[in-house]
Design a protein that fits this description.
InterPro entries (chains A, B): Fungal_SecMetab_SDRs, NAD(P)-bd_dom_sf, SDR_fam
Strand content of chain A: 5-15%
Distance between the termini of chain A: 31 Å
CATH class of chain A: Alpha Beta
Helix content of chain A: 25-40%
Protein name (chains A, B): Protein CBR-DHS-12
Strand order of the largest sheet of chain A: 3-2-1-4-5-6-7
Number of domains of chain A: 1
Organism (chains A, B): Caenorhabditis briggsae
Radius of gyration of chain A: 17 Å
Shape of chain A: globular
GO molecular function (chains A, B): oxidoreductase activity
Oligomer: homodimer
CATH superfamily of chain A: NAD(P)-binding Rossmann-like Domain
CATH architecture of chain A: 3-Layer(aba) Sandwich
Number of strands of chain A: 7
Family (chains A, B): Belongs to the short-chain dehydrogenases/reductases (SDR) family.
Chain lengths: ~260, ~260
C-alpha cells in the first residue's frame, strides 16, 4: 500500500522536486499535487508533470492565506472522494541571521512565518481533506497510507544539537527558531488529534545537509540520497513516530 | 555582590512588577529600570518608583524597533559607566490559539513576535551595554552580577513536556511556538558569545504557573512565591546555566 494522494509544497526545486520524482516510483501513488510559488519558473517540475500524468502543478504561496485557501479547493478537486493521504510541508527559506547581525525584525519574522507559521496554517487548512482520507479506514491506525502530515524539519530544530551558535556565515539563528517552532506546533497538533480522535499522523523528518540551493554545494549528501531515504521512511511511519523528530532514516533525534 | 544595574521589560504588572519589588530587597542593587508599554496605566509600579529612588520608569514597546533603540539610550544614561549588569526579558503575551482555531496567521505571528523575536532584538540592542558592564572584570566568569540576559521562559518551551496539545481553552499552541523559539535564540547566542569571547550569560527561567492576568486565578502559585525563587536563582547563575532551561529553583528542565 501507499498514499494514493499527495500534496507537497515547495516542489519547484531541491528536496521538494526530488520528493516528487521519488514518490512517482512508489507503486500505488495515484495523484501528486506539486505546489510551488512560481510554477512558470519551475522548468524541471513542468517536465516531470509532462511525462507523468499523475503529477499536477499548483501555484501556491504558503505565506499567503488566500493562496492556501485556493489550493485547498484545487487539491480537493484533484483528489475527489479519496481525500488527501499525505501532506508534505516542504516549502521553506533560510533568512541569514545571527547574533552579530544588525537587528532586523522583518528578517527573523519572515523566516519563522514561512517555515513554521505557514506550515501550521497549511496543516490546519488541509486537515479536513486529510480527515476525509482517514475516514476510509476504521480504527485508530496511524500511517502515511491513511493520512499524515510530514514536516520537512531540520537538525536545527534540536535544542540539544544547537551548540555551534549562529553557524556558518552568521546565518542560522532565525532558521533554528523557525524549525523548533515547527516541531512545537506538530507536537501540540499530535496531542490534539489524539484528544479529538482524529487519526492523522504528524511528524518531522530531517533530510540531512543536502546539496540544494539552500544547502549549498558543500553539503554532505545529494538530493537523491536524501529523498530516497525520506520516501522509504514515509512508508514506515506509524504511531511511534507521531509528534517526533527523526532523521531521514527514521532514527530519533533529541529535542 | 549583586547586579548593580538592571533593566526589566513588562514591569507594569504580574511577574515583571513582582520582580522589581523583589529585586529592591537585594543588597547592592543600585538602579532598576522598569520598562512598560504603558507607564501611565502602571499605577502600582509608579507607586513603587515614588517610594524608592532606585527605580526608574521607562516607556518601551518591545515590539517596536524605534522604541527599543530609544530605550537603549535612556538606560545608557541611567546606568552610565557601570553599564548594564542584568537584562530581564519578561514582556510577553498569550494569544489564544489552538489546532481547532480558525486559521489566523496574524495571531500566531503576534505571539511569536512579542515573546521571542522582540526578546531577541532587545538582547541584541542591549548587548553593548551588557558588554560594558562585563568589561569591569577580567576573565570569563559568567554571572548575573557581572552581565546576564535572563529570559522569563516557560515549561511551554519544552517539547518533552508538550503532551497535552493546545491546552485549556485551545489557547497555548502559538505561545508554545514562541517559547521554544526563545530558548532557541538563547542557545544560539550563548554559543556565539563563547566563540566571540563575550562573557555575558544568557538563560531561560520558567516562573511556574503564576496567579497573574496571564496565568489566571486558578494558577498554582502566587507572584510572591514565584519571584522570590526567581530572584534567589538569578543570584546563583553561573556558567552551568548558560543556554539552559530551568524552573524557578534552577532545576534543569528537559528540552
Amino acid at each position: 500500500m501507499a498514499p494514493k494522494t499527495i500534496f507537497i509544497t515547495g516542489a519547484n526545486r531541491g528536496i521538494g522536486l526530488g520528493l516528487v520524482k521519488e514518490l512517482l516510483k512508489v507503486s500505488g501513488v495515484e495523484t501528486i499535487v506539486a505546489g510551488a510559488r512560481n510554477i512558470d519558473g519551475a522548468k524541471e517540475l513542468q517536465s516531470v508533470a509532462k511525462s507523468d500524468s499523475r503529477v499536477h502543478l499548483l501555484a501556491v504561496d504558503v505565506a499567503n492565506d488566500e493562496s492556501i485557501a485556493n489550493s485547498v479547493n484545487s487539491v480537493a478537486g484533484l483528489v475527489g472522494e479519496r481525500g488527501l493521504n499525505l501532506l508534505i510541508n516542504n516549502a521553506g527559506v533560510i533568512e541569514p541571521y545571527g547574533t552579530s547581525s544588525t537587528p532586523n525584525r522583518a528578517t527573523v519574522l519572515k523566516c519563522i512565518d514561512v517555515n513554521a507559521v505557514s506550515a501550521l496554517l497549511v496543516s490546519q487548512h488541509f486537515l479536513p481533506l486529510l480527515q476525509k482520507a482517514a475516514a476510509k479506514e476504521d480504527g485508530d491506525t496511524l500511517s502515511a497510507d491513511r493520512a499524515a502530515i510530514v514536516n520537512i524539519g531540520s537538525d536545527c530544530a534540536s535544542q540539544a544539537l544547537n551548540l555551534r551558535g549562529s553557524g556558518p556565515g552568521n546565518s542560522l539563528l532565525a532558521y533554528k527558531m523557525s524549525k523548533v517552532a515547527m516541531v512545537s506546533f506538530s507536537r501540540s497538533m499530535a496531542a490534539d488529534f489524539k484528544n479529538l480522535n482524529i487519526p492523522v499522523l504528524i511528524t518531522n523528518i530531517h533530510p540531512g545537509w543536502v546539496q540544494t540551493d539552500m544547502g549549498g554545494s558543500n553539503a554532505e549528501i545529494s538530493v537523491d540520497e536524501s529523498v530516497t531515504k525520506i520516501v522509504a521512511s514515509i512508508g514506515k511511519l506509524n504511531a511511534s513516530h507521531h509528534a517526533g523528530l527523526f532523521n531521514r532514516e527514521l532514527e530519533t533525534m533529541p529535542f
